[in-house]
Design brief:
This protein has 153 residues and is an all-alpha fold. Helix content is 55%, strand content 0%. It has 8 helices and no strands. It has helices at residues 2-5, 13-37, 57-65, 86-97, 102-105, 107-115, 119-135, 138-141. The longest helix is centred in the N-terminal third of the chain and has 25 residues, at 13-37.
Length: 153
């Protein structure tokens, strides 16, 4: 975001989508590697972190990638999942790490998969959750002004 604000990247949707998928996908790989090597444990699992113990944005951006897709959200309940979007990558990671029935260890994701009819609705709900649980929490976003690049009212 900061690099777009200083015009290092053009703020056009195609470029922004490519940056999210490429850069954030690599970030997830590095983060997962560090979590595995150092056996890092999550701080807690509530709010948006109830979806995944470590990362939420992959679900938000991954559900955006799947908008308009004919595959129903319930398709995540039938692994193996193709690594074609961030949502599937995150769910695959959960399948790799957790044991037992999916509905027990990932109740919120299971409820979304079985109760939400399409990816447009999943993405809309993810955006609302991100806004309520992250952006509206001062303790989480207090450092976002990025040294004056963003106006903070």
């Amino acid at each position: 975001m900061a690099l777009t604000l200083v015009r290092f990247f053009e703020p056009v949707p195609e470029e922004e989508r490519h940056l999210v998928v490429t850069v954030f996908g690599k970030y997830l790989e590095v983060a997962w590697h560090l979590q595995d090597v150092y056996r890092l444990e999550p701080a807690g699992s509530h709010g948006v972190w109830g979806l995944d113990d470590y990362h939420f944005l992959g679900f938000l951006w991954g559900s955006a990638q799947l908008r308009g897709n004919n595959l129903p959200p319930s398709s995540i309940l039938k692994p193996p999942l193709p690594a074609t979007n961030l949502y599937n990558l995150q769910v695959t990671r959960i399948y790799q790490l957790k044991i037992g029935p999916f509905f027990e260890h990932s109740a919120q994701l299971h409820a979304i998969a079985t109760g939400v009819p399409n990816w447009d609705k999943v993405n809309s709900g993810m955006l609302k959750m991100y806004e309520a649980e992250v952006l509206n929490k001062r303790v989480v976003v207090q450092h976002l002004p990025l040294g004056g690049l963003l106006v903070w009212d």
